[in-house]
Amino acid sequence: MEERLLNKKYVFDGKGVLALVGGFLAGSFLVAILNVILIFVFNINIQYEDYYLLVANAAGFLAAIFAFDYFVCRPSIGKKLNFNMSPTNLMTYFLIFPMMFGMMLIAEFTTSLIPTTGPFFGEYYQYFTDLMEKMTSNTATLFFLAVIMAPVFEEIVFRGIIMKGLINKGLKPKTAIIIASVIFGLVHGNPWQFVGAVLLGSVLGLVYYKTKSLLLPILLHAFNNLCSVILISYNKTESFAETFNVSEWLLLAVGIVLFTTFYLLFTKKYRVHYNEN
User: Fold this and answer.
1) How far is Cα 124 from Cα 136, in angstroms, rounded to an integer?
2) Where are the alpha helices (DSSP H) in the chain?
3) Residue-wise pLDDT tens digits, 210-220
């Protein structure tokens, strides 16, 4: 019986969806309740403070991860949720970061094709732009949220829980990577970030599947977000083309060359050594 439990792996199914969504909503609700208490007792409204977004996101993701661990993982495999965070050999880093950067350029070009004007897209894009301006007004808060919190929490949920859980369930790795990436894109809540999230999520999923270390997609995710924070701080835009005044087509060409070259080196030419916990 003990040996059977040791060999069991958690899966991601309908119960997992309920655990993640329910946990996230519960964590967010607790922060909202705390804010109401502070308003009535101390006349303090933290909703308009820069750190509120950090607290709300941390509470939501931590509660979601805890719910999956407590209600899905432990009952099914008899032990707590655990991820391999092992570093890998130096050469792997030299392969995956250029591959990621190439896809970042491809994602920017693809995103630029989505309309930002018109009866539907125009109003939606303006709302999205205004929201992003509010979220990025404080550089320190933006850095901590985008470069530290988001990579850790999102990679645990989308690659560590959803993608790995789907593979454990029996889905082909390619299918699991795509599904996790599409869900990753959908939760961003707008078409402009959806495209980039799906493309970049696919790279993150590939790297996690090949190396079995969640540390690597976390570092790549942080690298992508760090580039965005630097561009926003410097030029109030996430676009490399606008910042450096170059053609989107040139970025696409460079992106294709970088991604294709290092993708082939990573998946075909280089042998990745790993151990999965």
Assistant:
1) 18
2) 2-7, 14-42, 52-68, 74-77, 90-112, 121-135, 139-143, 150-155, 164-169, 173-186, 191-211, 215-235, 240-244, 248-264
3) 999 999 999 99
pLDDT tens for each residue of 237-252? 889 999 999 999 999 9
Q: How far apart are CA 14 and CA 81, in angstroms?
A: 18
Tokens matching residue 108:
């920017």
184-211 pLDDT per residue, tens: 999 998 888 999 999 999 999 999 999 9
Distance CA 168, CA 239 (A): 37
Residues belonging to the chain: 277
Long-range residue pairs from 101-104, CB within 8 A, at least 24 positions apart, any chain: 101/223, 101/255, 101/258, 102/254, 102/255, 102/256, 102/257, 102/258, 102/259, 102/260, 102/261, 102/262, 102/263, 103/199, 103/200, 103/202, 103/203, 103/255, 103/259, 104/196, 104/200, 104/224, 104/227, 104/255
Q: Which residue has the tokens 């760090």?
A: 226
**What is the dihedral sign for C-alpha 233, 236, 239, 245?**
negative
In a 13 Å sphere around the CA of 229, the CA atoms on its Cβ side amount to: 19
Separation of alpha carbons 202 and 208, rounded Å: 10
Q: List pLDDT tens digits, range 40-90.
A: 988 888 887 778 889 999 999 999 999 999 999 999 999 999 999 999 889
- Specify the residue for token string 């040791």: 6
- Would you place residue 2 in the very low, low, confident or very high pLDDT band (cuts 50, 70, 90)? very low
Q: What is the 3-state secondary structure (H, E, C) of 148-176?
A: HHHHHHHHHHHHHHHHHHHHHHCCCHHHH
CA dihedral (186, 173, 226, 190) in degrees, to 10, reads: -10
